[in-house]
From TrEMBL:
PANTHER family: 6-PHOSPHO-BETA-GLUCOSIDASE ASCB-RELATED, GLYCOSYL HYDROLASE. Belongs to the glycosyl hydrolase 1 family. The keyword Hydrolase applies. GO terms for biological process: carbohydrate catabolic process. Signal peptide: none annotated. GO terms for molecular function: beta-glucosidase activity. This is 6-phospho-beta-glucosidase. GO terms for cellular component: cytosol. It comes from Spiroplasma turonicum. Keywords: Glycosidase, Hydrolase.
Length: 488
């Protein structure tokens, strides 16, 4: 067995997102974001994979706004905003050479008037200088599930084309002000999640029984595509060395059985939920299967000729994605050439987490191959990790997260096989997460992903103290050995 190592200049590190770890929701003139209105539910059923964890409907949003007893975990996060110096030192201790994080739009531009918050700019510069001081490269996402509340309330988010202008106004500030800190940028986090949640994915509200739900979702996605493409253009104008990417959640799927109808179901489902998104950002056009799907489902896209050219001429420089798990697609019925698909099914060959996420390291290798050979653009895995409810053992002063080491080892070795045996060009990997933070879907602090433990509970109570888990020590060995440690 060959012991492959990381390619030269490989970006290896950790990830996080502003709304999930910064906290300080009322500091330095920040205004609220959609994440700040998400509430923690102590009675949630963790294994309920049918529940739409990310959505907040029009009706629910109005209830939340009048609820002054609710627990809003994203408002306090883990207070990285004030702890960044200590946190960067710890990142260094767990072997991180690259940190993927996001900037908070509602900090930079707190109101719809477009006035820039200089306090936030100054503070982010301090944070990024600290990364530099610790020799940590940055990959910066412009919007990671935290649309400003003003964008939602005054424009209804990306359902409104005006959001494109607002996003570019913000992007220009960020790309100019933080130009010296990185060349690696990502426009939006997981655009394909907009299909599952208008609120989290695109910052707008839909009523529970809206008849035009699908049409609204696809129009918002289209507006995000246009904003993303214009952002590619803008990034190059500001600095020709900028690499602008866009991110999707990898929807790795398999047919439920060897029945060709299950393969057809898998093909159709992955076109719509997965490949279509890469086609637009990497190839610059809507694939014909999608245009046919729109006609069939009576979806009218507000798509101008100008926008078609913008998409075509401004594709991403590299492709970033998150990878956590895989699912199965099954043909439920097939009548008059019409297929009904059952998606999201569990795989009997795989173990899964407490939240029902299948663990599939080989799926990562398959997905990297499929993605790279379709578009031949460099890949970066910007999220991959396992969420576990775990506790620090204060008697032994340790958190022996052996399951995380196993998870990472299996995924990283498959990544190295994709690179070295299959010829995939992958330039980086950042684990989700460098440090424990609030879970986006379940809003729990106790769904922990980090290499570094943070002593806080679901209500934000605790000392906030940070401690390195066993996985953090192991991750450092992997980094120092340039990957050789993975084969032990
Ligand atoms: C990704 C998101 O989809 O998954 C992150 O970009 C999120 O924001 C991560 O935290 C893990 O999901 P969750 O819901 O367990 O936090």
């Amino acid at each position: 067995m060959k012991k492959y190592t990381f390619p030269k200049n490989f970006m290896f590190g950790g990830a996080a997102a502003s709304s999930q770890y910064e906290g300080a929701y009322d500091q330095d003139k920040k205004s609220l974001s959609v994440a700040d209105y998400k509430i923690y539910n102590p009675n949630l059923n963790r294994s309920d994979t049918n529940h739409n964890w990310l959505e907040v409907s029009y009706e629910e949003y109005n209830d939340i706004k009048n609820n002054n007893k609710a627990v809003f975990p994203f408002r306090w996060g883990i207070d990285f905003y004030n702890n960044y110096e200590e946190d960067f030192k710890l990142f260094k201790q767990v072997g991180i050479n690259t940190f993927r994080t996001s900037i908070s739009w509602s900090r930079i531009i707190p109101k719809s008037d477009g006035v820039v918050n200089t306090k936030a700019i100054t503070h982010y510069k301090k944070i990024f200088d600290c990364a530099k001081k610790n020799n940590i490269k940055l990959v910066l996402t412009l919007c990671h599930y935290d649309y400003p509340i003003w964008l939602l309330e005054e424009y209804n988010g990306f359902l409104n084309k005006e959001a494109i202008n607002k996003f570019l106004e913000y992007a220009k500030v960020v790309l100019t002000e933080f130009d010296e800190y990185t060349n690696y940028w990502i426009g939006f986090n997981e655009i394909n999640l907009t299909l599952h949640s208008s609120y989290t994915g695109a910052g707008f509200l839909i009523k529970k029984n809206d008849d035009n739900r699908l049409e609204k979702l696809y129009n918002a996605v289209h507006n995000q595509f246009v904003a993303q493409a214009l952002c590619v253009k803008l990034a190059k104008e500001i600095n020709k060395n900028n690499m602008m990417g866009s991110m999707n959640a990898a929807a790795q799927t398999y047919p439920y059985s060897s029945n060709p109808l299950d393969s057809l179901a898998n093909l159709k489902s992955s076109q719509i939920n997965n490949w279509f998104f890469y086609e637009v950002i990497a190839n610059g056009q809507y694939p014909q299967y999608m245009l046919n799907y729109f006609i069939k489902n009576n979806i009218k896209l507000q798509n101008t000729n100008d926008e078609i050219n913008i998409l075509k001429n401004n594709t991403v420089d590299y492709i970033t994605f998150s990878y956590y798990s895989s699912t199965l697609n099954k043909c439920k019925s097939y009548t008059n050439n019409d297929i009904l698909i059952e998606s999201g099914l569990s795989n009997p060959h795989l173990n899964s987490t407490e939240w029902g996420w299948n663990i599939d390291p080989i799926g990562l290798r398959i997905f990297m191959n499929e993605l790279y050979y379709r578009y031949k653009k460099p890949l970066m895995i910007v999220e991959n990790g396992i969420g576990v409810d775990e506790k620090w053992d204060y008697n032994k002063n340790i958190l022996n997260d052996i399951y995380r080491i196993e998870y990472l080892k299996d995924h990283l070795t498959n990544m190295l096989l994709a690179i070295n045996e299959d010829g995939v060009n992958c330039i980086g990997y950042t684990i989700w997460t460098a440090i424990d933070l609030i879970s986006m879907s379940s809003k729990e602090m106790s769904k922990r992903y980090g290499l570094i433990y943070v002593d806080l509970n679901d209500y934000g109570i605790g000392s906030g103290e940070r401690k390195i888990k066993e996985s953090g020590k192991w991750f450092k060995k992997v980094a120092d050995s340039n990957g050789e440690e993975l084969w032990k």
